[in-house]
Amino acid sequence: MFTLFPETMHPTPEELAMLERIAQLPRPRHVFIKKSVAATEIGGNILFTIAWFYISVLIWKGRNSITDISLIFWLPLVPYILIGNARDFFQQRRLLEQGEVALGRVFHVRRGRHGRRIEFSFQDNSGRIATALARDSSYSIRKVGEGSGVIVFYDPANPEKRCVTSGATPWEVKLPSVPESS
Q: How far apart are CA 178 and CA 14, in angstroms?
């Protein structure tokens, strides 16, 4: 159910413990990339670039007034997409290393053409409540649902810059192991 004013649910002890473990880590936090995700991301971008190059050559060889116009739109498209992907990739890493951490609450999940999208809200350190959208992907160990808690890393100067670890990020924060109690 979609709501304009999502309820703020009280965090569970497990969610608070996870949040506290991350918040206590020294900055910059140790961040690593998931190997299977790295292979998928790099391979996908390489295949995308090869397809772009191949189609560009085909268009260039069959040049006429219509293809000249299509070249104006086609040629800058892929570099624009690749630069956007790279910017997001490195921004997510920076947020996980240096960003503030908060507990968010998912209030809506929807399925779309490009996978699941989660809508969530979180409260930053200054008390502002931010509502955001993130892509939930197969990178996630657990799928989130309505009411689930998510860990949000954000830029305190601009909470619009945020990253959800259960979302479509290839990065993961290395947490110290918890000693088992006997």
A: 14
Q: Is the pTM of this model over 0.85?
A: no
Cα 94 to Cα 169: distance, rounded to the nearest angstrom:
12
Question: In terms of Cα–Cα distance, which of 55, 134, 46 is closest to 95?
Answer: 134
Rounded Cα gap, residues 182 and 5, in angstroms? 45
How far is Cα 174 from Cα 126, in angstroms, rounded to an integer? Answer: 27
Q: Going by C-beta distance under 8 Å and a sequence separation of 6 or more, which residues neighbour residue 177? A: none
3-state DSSP call for residue 122?
strand
31 DSSP β-pair partners: 173
| d(C-alpha 57, C-alpha 157), whole Å | 45
Nearest Cα to 9, choosing from 156, 129, 95? 129
Q: Is it true that the peptide bond before 76 is cis, omega within 30 degrees of 0?
A: no
Q: pLDDT per residue over 107-160, tens digit each? A: 888 887 767 788 888 888 888 888 888 876 654 555 677 888 888 999 989 888
Tokens 């190997």, residue located: 35
